[in-house]
Records
---
Amino acid sequence: MAKRDKVTAQMSNMDKKTTYGESIALLKQKEKEAEMFKKNMHEKIKFLIGSAVNLNFLPQVKFCFVHVNWFFTKCVNNSLEYFPAEYAFGMFSLEKGIEEVHHVIVSAEIPLGYKREALETSQNSHHVPVEYNGGETDFAVMYEKLASFFESKKLVDSYPYIYTTSALVTPVQSLITKLCNAAEQDKEQFKIYELEALFMHLANEVYKKRTDRDIKCIPIYAGSIFTLYTYIHEQGFECHFHKYVDGGSEYCSKSVLHQWAWTMCNEFSEPLGIDIKPGIHYPSKPDPLFVVTDLMSNLQVDDAQASQYNGVLSMTGVSEQHRLKVSSRTYSEEMRRREMSKPVKIIDCSKIQGSASKPTDESVNSLTDQSENLPVEEKKFMSNYLNEKPLRRPNANSSMYSTSIEDFVLKDENFPPIGGRGVSIKHRIINPKKAPLGKGQGHT
């Protein structure tokens, strides 16, 4: 049967599949489409930058940046799907930096079976709580707000190109697909391009005015410039949630948009003759007193419940909350421990007259001389080293050693037969069995 099916498949020229059940022809078609999309991307960006340079308004051209954080990933039809936790869209120009930002924290319900991964991802990266109270819950509403944000930025009834780093292209595509599916809209209306490609085509034009950059190395610059994280710890540009979270500037989507903008301005603003301003083209340093005052004004001391992250089990299967509950002392136990504790007694051996007045060699020699005149049984309990205590004599009765071992062993009452069977040890010793003669017994 299997052989006949194989021959039939070969004769009918049926499509071959991978071990995952994917059509090989379909995969090759997708690869060609991806190559064609990338080629069109470079052509469109090059045309856009070239037109702006020819018309001398490159500093005023606006680009849309997007960054996304997620809670967990799952495999759907052999492709990863990202569940968003936070995302931000921002309009950028070399002249004014980041102008408008559309920022959203997602509070949608986590599907069954993915909450553990969502908690761990949140705890290890962006710290956005799962099902945050102040976020958006409906993806259709999120799409409507995003569409209204882009409404005034349309070019001939089409949305502007969206730029993100190559590592985030797939998560951004998953975000756009999720929003469009919820609102029953076409996801193809959003074109997601690589930020590295935009940087490369800008550098091809602007680096002609710089002597400290090698034009031949532009692809290398573009591939590494957004992984340097030069402005990763600059504070003051986070969202309302990450503003008071440790390490918020590192993962906040809104802050990341500003970091990308400062990187672009640092490379291209000065050669284009743009007036550099703090807070727009590079991060401004806020007044430390103002920062402290702002933090104190927003300080809240509440008896909050234990964090939900304490419910995440460790590799040993024990939660942090349970570990603290079991191992920590109560107030009464701590007071009892303090009352029963004794002060530490410090002994200064250098002040002891017995050890300090006698030379080291003399004490060792005297111990050695004393041990020479002792019997052998007492010598082994004599100390041979400085300040070493002699061994304690054994508490054994010496009369036991005077007893004959043979008399002790041959007593039948000490070794009775087990269960009334067998022969006593004395009979076995007196009348031993003779080994039979033959091969293997050492006899010739």
---
Amino acid sequence: MNRKGFFRGRVLGTSLAVLVASMAWQQAGQAASDTSAAAPAASTAPADISKMSKEEIDTLIYERQQAMIQLEKDADLLGDIVAGLAPASKLAETTRSIADSAKESHTLFQMKIPGGRTKAEAWSNWADYSKRMDHFVTSTEAMAKVGATGNVQGVLGMLGDALQCKQCHEVYREPKKTT
């Protein structure tokens, strides 16, 4: 794991875990006081933004952006691996990192915190967006399992299905602002 991954996973991941646990605790308390509630909300339920500070919202958006940045770096490295430009010995680590970042980003997007470069369409067309994210998590996990065996050609055959970044970004992400 690279240093940045360690930082993201240890420092920001810890702050995210504390924030999500806090939100789940608040939701559980509300559910307990509401006699019509069957069970407390899951920690990946949409966040009640009205009860969050700007700092908490910004932290979640930042976490989401960092997960996507790590995905982009890992996808670039994976491209180099399958092209023979980077050592195949990095295949398992790279595909695992992609799958882990896919899960992390999925969890963060499930909280439905608007902001960053995510278009409003992600929230207004949640069924489609969520379906794409579910597929992303499933296919990258399958790719990581093949990557763990060291099968570069097997991973190469899965790339088109697992990494449909452009198709999703064209619909649900704002382009980078040019300066």
---
Amino acid sequence: MPDHVFWRLGKAGLLAAFFLMFVWVLFANGSGGKAAKGNPDSPGNRVDALEIRIFEKGETHQMPPAIFMHDRHTSTLKDRDCSACHEETDEGAEAALAFEFKGTAELSSEAAKKRYHADCIGCHKDRAGQFEKTGPLVENCRGCHQPPSDVRPQRKQISFDRSLHFKHESAEPITYQPEKSDENCGACHHVYDEQAEKLIYKEGEEGSCRYCHKPQRIDDTRSFKNAAHDDCVNCHRRFKEDDIKAGPVECRGCHSVEGLAEIERIRDVPRLDRGQPDARIMADWLAAAGESGEMPAQYMKAAAFDHLQHENAAADTCRKCHHESLEACRACHKSKGAEEGGFVSLERAMHDMDSERSCTGCHKDQNTAGQCAGCHAQMPETRFAGLDCEACHALGAERLKPLPLGDEKKNAIAGSAVKARPDRIRTVAEDRIPEELEIDVMVDEYQAAQMPHRKIVNTLVDKIGDNSLAAVFHKEAQTLCSGCHHNSPPGLNPPKCTSCHTAAAKAPPGSDRPGLKAAYHGQCIECHKQMGLEEPAATDCKACHEERNENG
């Protein structure tokens, strides 16, 4: 081979080496794929960073997925509409734009790759030819294909809660067969009619979209992600095209902290009516007893469930409890467990302490709220055997006779039991609560601390006094006192802390209790921390203890 050919190859090699060094420096400094701190345009700080993966995970000899900034493209291509990248589809309630890149849905991986490269790079090339800001060109593969470990989009999930549901339900532009009804439920809610082979609205069977649309596509049923984007975003887009105020069409509108904060929340939302009772008797044996007309020989007392109160105070969405359907819990969760309920028995569904979906698990989670955590965060976790069963299971046989009971009668009994519950916690009369207590554990270094005892008690009462859950479980007037005066019988004259906590400088080796000084500081400071009190600060000793001077 002639020498000049080697020389040309040598120059090309040098140019290639310089190019690779430039790319390495570029990426090493965070300007490429890595989510540089403080850079809002880096993939790791954007909610619109989409991963385009056309090859299956695990396939070898392929570039990493392409990272596509959706909102960046829509804001840049303002002179073009969605059809620049998307085409119409008839999948869904009505014709809409498909969210796959146009022309790729039915293509093989290799063909889809060629289509993406031809259209995306072609668009970038056209803009570069017009001296406009553009994206990577054919020689800059890593401009799009970035290692997945470098991309961590900060995408939030939007909750279609009762407030958002009401905004759609009451929106005048959203209609469904307006000549027949003022209600617009059918604009979104649908079921599949197998005979007609199409989606239809069925009144009285409205439920969460997630009941049918699962995380992954199942047969012909779209995934929830695709269904939500197909129907919601397309609906918003159609309204905006007609200059009608509508919800977001950009990623940030639903999936960024800022976008979610901009969505107005309606506090007093009318009740969602699906024929549910205000209160309901819960007992797995009651149906069988109604059929036989006899009470079982052994049974647990029935519980009166305040459905209305849970709708208003406990759940922003019905899925909080009805996680698979709006049917009663026992429809899936049987006494012995069943396949349709994931073999979770009805008892477990109600009493699993580690599940936020169960009654007791949800109640336990409420203890982490600021107004409760001051006491409950420091208490040993109560397991099932330590629960107060009769706080819920209080309806004995005498209340449920004669059998059988119709739904109306059962609901009336449950409603009566709910109304009989206290609506405020019981408390000790104020004049029987000491106003101040003097704590002189560290008088060698500090003056005695004056503890505003009555003020603390009244503050706790103000925070949880009308909490219906606390009212049921704080049964005695001294129950609240046991948050501090723990491990001793409730009473107006509890034993001194030194009865259990040694006043010595250190607790004895092997002791399961802290010394007095540690107990005071641990309890007081931890309570302040859990309840979000900024003052007194944990490090501000003098806020509680005035420093002792030479004169005492």
---
Amino acid sequence: MTRSEHATRSPHDTSDPVRIDVLTVDVPPSWFAEAGAAPWVDSAAEHLSGGGSVTIRLAREGLPGAAAELISRARAALLAVTTVMRQEHLLPGDAYVEVDEESYGTPTAPRGRSRFLLPHQDGAHSSFLTPRRENDGHGVTDDRMFSNTVFFKRPSHKMYQGFLITRPGAFPGETYYYNLIALLVEAYRLRFGAPPERGADVERFLGDNIARSLRLSDVHRSRYLTLGSLLGSANPAHHVLPSGPRAESELWPEQYASIPGIWGLVEGCPCGACEGPGARLVCHATFETLGLSWPGVRERYESTVVGERGDLLIGNNLSQMHAAFSARDRQICPVCVVVDKPAGPEYESWLAREWEQGLARLGVTA
């Protein structure tokens, strides 16, 4: 069977450089007997390394009934993909597959029928896009840490975030991907009135924005960088990330207390249609940094994947942000590609390539 017979693309392909290109690959049931080289492995490795996201369908026909077997298959599939990424696509030698079984089985919406996760990066207390060291004017690459006091489950630096769906729930869930480099380029253009001349300008812009959010951390009290903070908003309210980070979540009392005027922002938004305090804050932040409401950003930049049982969805956790809508009873198991420390020559080479290819797709010289 040829590579093309194992892989299909979503409607959001490389014809639109501001969207994430989504690839679906099918794993033949026979592959798990030997778990070796295969066309789908090469396709997935190349696509992930090229800045896209991948849905790995773990033998849709004849799926095992036990979640433990599905998790085992997901681990084997991603191990095969990362082996090729390490050999051919600059993935650092110390990167490994992390299966977060502690989080498995946690309800995705413990207090409601469904939940909408706002744009974020997994493990973003220590997993977020940074400039290359030579373009860092603030020392944010010294440890690449935003918050080291509280984190959820795992302290690792997640280069690629993914999750296996073991139970879809009452209705099929959707995952949404956003090209963070494209968003940064547009935010830069609006801030300075002209497109960036070089990629280094975008990297320095990002470094400035991270440093600002770190300086404001005692005000916004967030443990993750937000879309608004990454895109350069100076308003501390746009640096607030609600619990979850769910659109419907209330803010912490201390966030209301420390930011005058945030009450008005969570009660209404530029488009007038967003539901929940978190979603309204995002709407204000995107309107400030991109000139678009949150629904407008979704329409222009969003790529969508509908996940089914046995699907392993994975994408770049640094150059992308992701959001999701799913049922209360959906169950997922996080399966990621991580390093313990985001440092060293191999990591820096990998990061440089992420910037170079991401900027090149947008016509910006690195």
